[in-house]
Amino acid sequence: MSDLLEQALNLYAVVGQANSDRDPSVIDRPSIVPHHQNHAFHEWTVLFDLLWRAWDHVDATAPDQSRALVRRWRERPYFAFKRLVLAAVTASDNFTPGEKLEVLINA
Question: What string of DSSP letters covers 50-68?
Answer without folding.
Answer: HHHHHHHHHHHH-HHHHHH
